[in-house]
Amino acid sequence: MTVSETHRAIEAVWRIEAARLIAGLARIVGDVGLAEELAQDALVIALEKWPEAGVPPNPGAWLMSTAKHRAIDRLRRDQRLERKQDEIGRELGHRQHVEIDVETGPDFGDDLLRLVFTACHPVLSTEARTALALRVLCGLTTAEIARAFLVPEATIAQRIVRAKKTLARKKIPFEAPSGAELAARLPSVLEVVYLVFNEGYAATAGDDWMRTGLCEDALRLGRIVAGLVPNEPEVHGLVALLEIQASRTAARTGPSGEPVLLLEQDRARWDQLLITRGLAALARAEGLLNAQEGGGTPGPYTLQAAIAACHARARTPEETDWTRIAALYEVLGELSRSPVVELNRAVAVSMAFGPEHGLHLVDQLVAEPALKNYHLLPSVRGDLLAKLGRHDEAREEFERAASLTANARERAVLLERARASG
């Protein structure tokens, strides 16, 4: 294996194992920031040793073992070993037994859940909780997180640094909450799961349209949270949304990895098992809402799941109930007041009532500051202009959208649409 091949292998291993490493180390050292630092140290050592020694048979276990050794050394340097030795001893055993298989340790889901709830602690702002969890949970770059939040990259970087310092200064324990505290912290956890899934479902940067590993991580975490709080409707609403969205994975890319948009997808490739699970989760969310006194109000994830269900139930694009989808987006918009939701509503309105109606709504969003660098705004506007026969304007919009996206696959599609509008 060449050096470049080894580096690519290390990068792939890191994407898979980062969350596992940080979660496991945070349980040991009780500090999320320190856990990420130790995991990064292990990665640096791998970059130094693996090109010569080769990638080990179980790279995840190698990284965890190396990081645990670094944890011991760090604790000694900080003169904290005496206070921690009993805790470390129970976790690691004798130093010579550190080389363990990660899979034989405590359940990854438990550690992952603790990690997310710790990153989402109330001592942090909602924005900081989500940014930190995205960073330590799946190793997203500050640029990717910034695009998810539609804010400058420098803002995200500051949030992450301050969040780590706050957790360390406040000595926040590495644990999952219960009772009223759990209910108070649950919304930010659900936001983390949602944004992680979205980053996997439509990658903001790189050469791949999707990062399916992130989708799988988010879906698994969502199911774990649903198991922890089974009577919370919005948790099941989120799981329903992710299940249904994930059902389209195989149909979302073409033979060369190019993106395939929803209305052009081969619906025979949609995963019917995931759709069935998603519809069942949606029914459970709606059932829990109906059981509440006076009938509960659906939250944003349950509403989005209901929208996704409209697509899942349609055997062909023509059978899609766009009128209902537009109505659901209107309710969602009243609940969230998000310009992105308004953009999606404009698409639904255009499908239900004609492109001119959709364009009217999109034009009202052009001056929205949060959408200034959001590539989907000119992309949607270009599509509507093309449908109205305004091809020169459509071409300009597609070219602008292509210049704003950092995803190579998406850029290629947008540039092709620009050429086709010429």
From TrEMBL:
Any one GO MF annotation of this record: DNA binding
Domain DUF6596: residue ranges: 185-285
Domain RNA polymerase sigma-70 region: 21-80
GO biological process: one example: DNA-templated transcription initiation
Keyword Glycoprotein: no
One Pfam family per UniProt: Sigma70_r4_2
Gene3D superfamilies, alphabetized: 1.10.1740.10, Winged helix-like DNA-binding domain superfamily/Winged helix DNA-binding domain (1.10.10.10)
The entry's keywords: Sigma factor, Transcription, Transcription regulation
Domain RNA polymerase sigma factor 70 region 4 type, chain residue ranges per copy: 117-167
Similarity remark: Belongs to the sigma-70 factor family. ECF subfamily.
Name of protein: RNA polymerase sigma factor (Sigma-70 family)
